[in-house]
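Deliverable D4.2, example record:
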Amino acid sequence: MDPNVVAGSSFGILWEAQNTNDKEHWLAKPLVYTIDGTEFVITTSTFNTVRIHDAKNGTLVASRQLNPPFRVSDIGCADIPDYIGITGTGVIDPATSILYVAAKGYRGGLDYGGLANGIYQLYALHLPSLEDVEDFPVLIDGHNADNDPTRYFVGGTVLQRPSLAQVNGYILAAFGGHCDMFNYTGYVAAISKTPGVGVVRNGQGHANGAIPASGRLPLSTLDECVVNFALSSSGKISLTDYFEPYDYVNLDAGDQDLGSSGVCLLDNTVFRTASVSKIAVTVGKNSKVYVMNAENLGGFKQGTGGNDAVLQTISTSTSVFGGVGSYPLEGGYFYFTPVGDFTYAYRFGTTGAGVPSFSLAGKTAFQFAGRAGIGQPTITSNNGLPGSAILWMTDVNTGLKAFRAVPDNDGVLRQITLPATPGINKFARPAFGNGRVFVTASHKIIALGAPVNLPLNCTDPVKFGEVLTGTTGTASITCIAKIAITQVDGCTTEDSRFECDNSTLPVGPLSVGNSFTFPVTWNLTADALDEIEGVSYGKIIPGADGSVLKLHTTNGVANYAHKTPISLSGNIVSADPFLLVSPGQVDFGGLVLGSASAVNGLEATAHIKNVGNSTLEILGVAWRLGTDPSTPHNNVTLEGTRTVFGEGFEAEGFPEVGDFFDAGQGLTVPIFFNATEEGTYSVTIRIWSTGGVDEVILSASAGSPPIASIAVTKDEGGWDTSFPVVLDFHSVLAGTTKTKTIQLCNVGGSVLTITKSKPPISPQLTATAPFDEFLEGQHIAVGACANATVAVFAGTVQPNRPSQHIALNWTLNTDGMDSRNPTQEFGVREIEASVTITTKQVGPLFSNGTAVYQWTGCFLDTSRNLATQVNNSTMEASNTNGQCQNLCLERGYRFAGTQYHQECWCGNTITYPSSYTSEALDKCKYACTGDASESCGGDGTYLSLYADISKFDIPGFLESANSPPPTTTTTSSAPPSTSTTPPGPGSTLNPLMPDIVSDQWKYIGCHRDNVGGIRSINSKNTADDDMTLEFCADFCEGYNFFGTEYGRECFCSWTLDTPALKVTESDCSMACASNSAQICGNGDRLTVYNNTIFQEPPPAPSHAPRAGDYAWAGCYSEATVGRALTLATTADDDMDPAFCAAFCEDSDYMGVEYGRECFCGNTLEAGSTLQATGDCNMLCAGNAFQFCGAGGRLDLYTFSPIVASSTSSSVSSSASSLSVLTSSSAESSSAPSSSSSIASSSSIPSSVSASTTSSEPPPSSSSTFTGPTATATNGYYHVGCYSDRSDGHALPLIAANNSMTPELCIAVANSIYDVAPTPTARLPYVFIEYHHECYGGASFDFEGSAVSTLVGPHACTDYCYGSVSTFTTNGVVSTTTDLTNRCGGPKQFNLYVLSTPVDFPTTGGPIETVTPT
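Output generated by the structure prediction step:
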């Protein structure tokens, strides 16, 4: 694109293609592609429609709707209007001319289906025919994530917005949780160009907490990250590096997303230094630009003092959504546009230390829209010619804009005037062809360019080369006539320095093929000679320059342009030194006093360069207050490496007197501002040199934080500021409208920004202007307010319906403080809007005003549902539903119905219940003769039917009418058993469900899932397109419950809180993926079966007491600063304590954290202390029965190798105790001797009660258990059986192990005392509960309840898991269980103490003695 042509009068709109569907939008960028010499422009829409137009004239070549789009109403988010189809830009493979796009729709190609049936498919289309590539489209849904197999892709909940990419034979597609919904889960999918999804990856949640981490140590989850993924030849994605801002938790809390604009990789042939070969840039909602080393992104808190280890951080005025654009020529620039601000250009340079650094070079004078949606900067040039770069921007309000991409000497990106275009769709980018630019806006495709029918073919561009200041340069232009020309009328230039003489042009007519040549002069001798001190030439800035020359002709042939534009370009050169400081003004914006940014102040940059061809010397540096040239100057002062100017402005490494700059040498200088008082600040820095004098103005302001105050309108007028904020519309009659307003005011001292806004959208309760009010990124000035309106549009419906309650939230957040407490952040607000929509009640009424007859439904009445017509011809003329109901009640009928406008029918039965039609079909629309606002039947013999609610169960009828179709019952040889499950709400079990599946699983009903984000059945799960009830039953073998959900998901567990989770049977209505005759739950609904053969649950996960040569020391925190263990680290999906022990070998300490991370060290860093055992609650990635720390918590182990003991009859130390216990759990011994080897001879009798079984230990004895004698076991005495508290436990958990015995529990307690890195007191109390759980502590917490000692045959009867031994004799597997000691029971514990009496709490009263039954 030639800027001189674009700026010319001949550049205009070439064609427009209008789309008549006002529900269809273009969010994806147009693609321009040439096939066999013909250039096409390709668009893809939210309607899943692909169109191909001839790029030259706009002719529609091909069009195809791939499948019906997903309805926005099914997800309840208004970020995208109407429909969601193709929203991400596709990609074309030039080797095959195949277009790949990701399209959202519904299963089965339907045009409806709800959230649960939403899917994404990858289409591959031949160009230009748009025919499917064989075996495409590929369904992306249902594939499990490689990095978290428990998660799988659900198309209905996500949005594919970024452009697709193709790498290594795979198409990469990125998805985000739509509208901050559904756990914020994002995915990256790699789909092979040959069918089959290669991999799906996702990230969710926080992982780092406050602990610094290298980017090379992969995160288990990704949050607010810039990520470098590797894609293998097999399509597997692996995380190789990442950057996560040090304050990412705050970014989440404030909805200041890092990834709102994506990442820009800069051209590494230009943007590089000796130490940094690749640079990446990102900017987002948090108003920061991060410049990163793309080959070492920076990890988390790897910078000085725990800050970000990035090359540079640049503050922006507001949030940036549209991303970064770059231009790699003429020194190199990148660009970005904050919401409601200018587009800024930053120039590439280096610091004095040679580190890459960008300085503000200029900005546009045009200010863009104050709402999200501004496009990404896009830069073109005329084949790389210097001075030809154009910056293109799209604005949601004012359309396409163009600017010179290189700032002028005033630091301005000069605007190029374009033909007016409508507002461009959110975040759209223009596409470019052969001298043409394409954009999509307001349901149309717009092509802009210069006319292609030019009468002359002239030299273009004309290059003057280098011209010295103070001299002239001349170039020649040769033109050839393409048509018969009557005469050449003359020439003009848009810059007077370029001179063209009409006398050099031909006179008279030209025939086709005639040529002529004429000169053009570039005159650099006459420009403002006195502008610059100390030089003899005018202020002409060295660098690329140019203009456009136009030849004016009178043509002998019609339909040809009368102006032929010719581009002129050259490079201005100064033989002398030339000082240039850019930009001319550095505006730091506002400093919010008391904020985190006020600690270190604000930072910006300036670029100082010698653009001349001789060495430049700095002669002086000074500053003055403000911008008035007459204000006296002040000398700068030096403080170390900093130059202090005053007013809070300082610079690092600023040039000093006597410094030299070689020809072309530049320096990027960091400049800082800070203040402690409110006000505006400004200074001007002046530099004297042998290359002239130049200045830079520094300006900033400081103010108190923004404070947000929120209120809503009252019904009686005025504003309601109470908390919480609620828009309660109360009751609104159907067919009427009511509005309320939310007002957000800034009562603080700095500009307030809305950081998150998700308005309510529904047919009857909605924000009235969701795309114009309370916009993300919107500014609210100090003392100003912004308003947003919510309305109830209560639809017109049949009378006598139950009241309908609707409640939706407007989610809102700002970067300000809370007016109710200005020391706290405003935070995320869920502003509830609620309404109860009522209908008019007609006919006979109950005393409370409710109609006796209530709407039941619209019925197809080809055969009579109600037997008797009761109104006569006179009544027919005034027929209404109320009149009809009065007639039916007088005659004692249960049902009343109206039909054909005028008829009234009554009856006591609905003859054909199956003739009920769905409300969605809206079939009953005939106006009643007596009241046109009511419906009396509908076209095609439809009947409006009402029922007496005192005699008929309308909800029950509708539940049955809307129930799923009959299913085939699975036969079973096993006799049916009676379910003891309590009935759920609504009715009995669905009789169409198979009662018994796979001979042993009994149906127990439809259950709720995901209550509070927690799975109801959560021990094991899978998802498969072959899902049936039998499939899930086989998968859940060994469990007590299985549940199917969402058609293709299967969950297993040993326990289920059936009474609390049971729901009505109609909630489960989704067919199984591989058997449409079976029901497999629904969204958040489980079809549940109970195993009729009880399965003993496995022991709970435990903290491994030993791992290799290491003994468990407890749950420890990370250090005060950094990691607790710093010698070595690794992370692996096979992680468990044994894995880590092998990795750390002979280190003094090793610890496992966050499920999959291992750390080694010889010292425990300061601040790492013992925490509650329950804090280490994350399961090991490689062993689901062991714990591996948690976020910021280590399961810590000390080096304590096994020492051989001469005796096995006693346990004398924690190390030998644990080693002997470990050996006792082996299963291959020839005799059960290992069981007795762990016992202390002083406390446990030698008798062993043994039994033999083929698979499991015998049940506990029912006889009274008195416990061991009052002899100390390793210092502890058994004092009896007690009842634990109902919620939680009276002491903290310290161990849970499949080898648990009293000796092991006590050994663990002793090990915490003996091997702790820091001194601890011995635990006074330990107790054992539920076979295998060990608790210990210094004081009991019974939450105010009385302490109960338990006696009798049902007190503490659980055997100890560690007392069970399995051995094999002659191939027979036998089990022996030592019943001498017991290990508590359910909510019962055996207590061991160091000394008596026991200090039980007495707040609940005296100790009670209870005999459990």
